[in-house]
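Run log // design_07
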């Protein structure tokens, strides 16, 4: 049988594995930071209506510039952050992964490097690899906050072209202070200047404000967002960024024409009409997340403060054994490869109760 490495693939892809969490069919799946609440029925009906309209014109290519959708996303950002964002500052693609890929195609690439502070969202490094961008793994403190002095030193010395700051950070759940982002931005501008990307995939779940207002006067700063988490629409594949309009113009150089289907645009627009209901679910998830943090600490576990819809908990001598023992009780959590730690996504109250019972039994057993 022919294997990947028998093919004339790029050298840097040889021997690598694709990204992917195990998709196991168990009763309680709390491993991919999805929103546990299905879209409300009135929204489902509105999606059907909007998609039907779009379907009548599927013989035509979609709006290549997704103007109506970008205006809707800009209004959402303005309403929720109090910072005015216009549609020419917003760009959308198929998931924030594609947004990040377009940014690296534009600002990274062969002969260029990007830095992230790990452990962090592993796709940052994988998208770097896929776009031929060299990857630099920057440091974090013991408590998983960004080690500012070490980060500044790494930026000054290695002069990366792109700096990733994930806030709240996946898989640790930690948010980054605005002052830290500003200091890293200054360091990155002094070093090169480079593009600084703040990945705010989980920001709606945070106890803190969005870092979006920092965009003002900083043309090399980008904030990326997604509808996969707070909007509960991971299956939609809709991510977006806010930045200086010049950044939006720049990614046009690499985006595929008509990359965002008319069906996707119609669905995302329907979701934006139901923002209030969806953000209501976010409030429930935030309080469930806080409940889980307290309950896990009461079980005697270490828990990293979380500003996301997931929680990092530990520490375990044999992380895999604990993961397996929780799984044996019908609950799937994530082992992100951070030694001693596991990650659980906040689910519905019933799912969270099942998780707490499973962890409690697992740590007694082991
Ligand atoms: C930090 C972070 N950024 C981006 C994404 C990608 O989200 P999507 O491509 O679904 O928008 C994820 C998904 O889990 C994530 O954890």
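design_07 sequence
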């Amino acid at each position: 049988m022919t294997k990947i490495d028998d093919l004339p693939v790029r050298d840097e892809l040889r021997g690598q594995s694709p990204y992917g969490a195990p998709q196991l069919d168990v009763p309680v799946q709390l491993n991919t930071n999805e929103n546990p609440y299905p879209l409300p029925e009135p929204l489902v009906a509105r999606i059907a209506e909007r998609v039907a309209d779009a379907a009548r014109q599927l013989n035509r290519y979609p709006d290549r510039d997704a103007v109506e959708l970008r205006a809707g996303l800009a209004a959402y950002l303005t309403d929720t952050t109090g910072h005015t964002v216009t549609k020419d500052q917003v760009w959308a693609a198929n998931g924030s992964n594609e947004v990040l890929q377009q940014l690296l195609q534009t600002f990274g690439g062969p002969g260029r490097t990007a830095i992230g502070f790990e452990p962090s969202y592993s796709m940052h490094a994988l998208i770097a690899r896929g776009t031929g961008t060299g990857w630099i793994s920057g440091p974090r403190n013991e408590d998983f906050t960004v080690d500012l002095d070490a980060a500044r030193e790494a930026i000054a010395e290695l002069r990366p072209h792109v700096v990733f700051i994930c806030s709240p950070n996946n898989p640790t759940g930690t948010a980054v202070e605005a002052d830290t982002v500003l200091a890293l931005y200054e360091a990155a501008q002094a070093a090169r200047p480079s593009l600084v990307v703040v990945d705010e995939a989980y920001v709606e779940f945070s106890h803190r404000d969005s870092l979006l207002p920092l965009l003002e006067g900083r043309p090399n700063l980008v904030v990326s967002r997604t509808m996969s988490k707070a909007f509960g629409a991971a299956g939609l594949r809709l991510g977006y960024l806010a930045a200086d309009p010049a950044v939006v113009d720049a990614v046009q150089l690499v985006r595929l024409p008509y990359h965002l289907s008319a069906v996707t645009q119609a669905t995302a627009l329907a979701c934006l009409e139901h923002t209030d209901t969806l953000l209501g679910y976010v409030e429930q998830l935030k309080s469930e997340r806080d409940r889980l943090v307290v309950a896990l600490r009461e079980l005697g576990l270490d828990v990293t403060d979380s500003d996301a819809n997931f929680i990092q908990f530990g520490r375990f001598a044999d992380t895999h054994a604990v993961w397996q023992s929780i799984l044996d009780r019908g609950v799937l959590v994530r082992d992100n490869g951070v030694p001693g730690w596991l990650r659980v996504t906040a689910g519905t109250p019933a799912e969270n109760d099942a998780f707490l019972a499973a962890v409690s039994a697992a740590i007694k057993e082991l």
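Residues 33, 95-97, 121, 166, 170, 199, 201, 226, 228, 234, 239 surround pyridoxal-5'-phosphate (CB under 6 Å).
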